[in-house]
Design goal:
The complex is a heterodimer. Chain A is an all-alpha fold. Chain A contains 16 helices and no strands. The chains are: A mainly alpha, B mainly alpha.
């Protein structure tokens, strides 16, 4: 091989291992790992630690695979948006066909391995999650309706339900409530982000609510979803996954979240642009803490139960 | 006259990728081995009727 041919290959962009790993959206995977682990540990049935480790790993791989399929399909959008333009496909490091192959292969691998390691209810839920994220959300809803993230948010809400199914082999009220907690949290979280990143979505032609119905409507929607979220989050505390710690955390966080949503609703664009969307940005930051602390509290209740401290 | 090996950034990237794939494969083998050990020692691989019998005893 001559130097000339080596240089040509470099220009076409031969990917490193890290570039392939980036296809799996590691940051999203970390949320998947955390919520799936909480769902698994909060379940009333014990799981062998090694099986639990493998199950969470396969759920994460499945989540990552759907991320790769999302990047394959959305390469044209990612190229336009500043936030996503350095992703492996738009930056030319990974070919779209490679991303598709990795996504499909890892999806099948994760579902089969989860089925073999735990049970096929959990594997079926993982398969449905991948299908929902890659096909229903990415291929269908995202470019079609401003309600894209509302319905698409379901994909991100499934991991704790899968974790619960790994332990119990089924679905129950508690796992549905954990699902609903993430499902109802997603719209205010992403719409707050869209309020201060609107121009990017507009440029990419993604019908975000801020683009199609305006910012006033988006502010109203954030408030409505935050109001609907509060009873679900606090209600989960009355089930077997809740307890005094969860209830305290949930009441405080929902009060803060509602207060933030009301502040966003009462503001107009002049006030928002005057302070560079400070309220919207702090609401977005709070939304990250909201989810992390809710699931952290569920985990704390589960961890304290063996000592007779967690739960009601 | 011998050939000199030309070190190129591409070689580094390739060896990094090969190492990564190698480690993933070793990890997969370890996981399958570990799962097998856990399932066999806990009776998870036995036929369903045997598991039921053991459960009722």
């Amino acid at each position: 091989m001559s130097d000339a041919s080596l240089n040509t290959q470099t220009q076409t962009g031969e990917a490193g291992f890290g570039d392939y790993f980036a296809l799996l959206k590691p940051r999203v995977m970390s949320l998947v790992v955390f919520t799936a682990l909480v769902g698994l540990l909060a379940a009333p049935v014990g799981v062998h630690p090694f099986i639990a480790f493998c199950a969470v790993l396969f759920i994460a791989v499945g989540g990552g695979a759907s991320g790769a399929l999302n990047m394959w399909w959305d390469a044209d959008i990612d190229e336009v948006m500043k936030r996503t333009s350095s992703r492996p496909i738009p930056s030319g490091k990974v070919a779209p066909q490679e991303a598709l192959a990795i996504g499909v292969t890892l999806s099948a691998f994760a579902v089969i391995m989860l089925g073999l390691a735990s049970n096929f209810v959990a594997a079926g839920l993982l398969a449905f999650t991948i299908f929902f994220y890659a096909v229903v959300y990415t291929m269908w809803l995202k470019r079609w309706t401003p309600q894209n993230i509302v319905i698409g948010g379901a994909a991100g809400a499934f991991p704790p339900m899968i974790g619960w199914a790994v332990a119990t082999g089924g679905v129950s009220l508690e796992s549905v409530l954990m699902f609903l907690l993430i499902f109802m949290w997603t719209p205010p979280h992403f719409w707050a982000l869209a309020l201060f990143m609107n121009s990017d979505y507009e440029k990419a032609g993604v019908p975000m609510l801020t683009v199609t119905h305006g910012r006033r409507t988006t502010r109203k929607h954030i408030l409505v979803y935050t109001i609907l979220l509060a009873p679900l989050a606090i209600g989960a505390g009355l089930t077997s996954i809740g307890g005094p710690i969860y209830m305290t955390v949930s009441v405080v966080l929902n009060a803060l979240f509602l207060f933030g949503a009301v502040k966003i609703w009462r503001r107009d664009e002049d006030a928002a642009s005057a302070d560079k969307y400070r309220t919207e940005k702090s609401f977005f930051g709070l939304s990250l803490m909201y989810l992390f602390l809710h699931f952290g509290a569920i985990l704390a209740e589960a961890a304290l139960k063996p000592y007779g401290l967690g739960g009601w | 006259m011998g050939f000199e090996k030309v070190e190129h950034e591409l070689h580094k990237r390739r060896s990094g990728r090969n190492l990564g794939v190698g480690l993933v494969l070793v990890g997969f083998v370890a996981i399958v081995f570990g799962l097998t050990v856990v399932k066999v020692t806990r009776g998870g691989l036995e036929p369903a009727y045997l598991q039921k019998q053991q459960g009722s005893n």
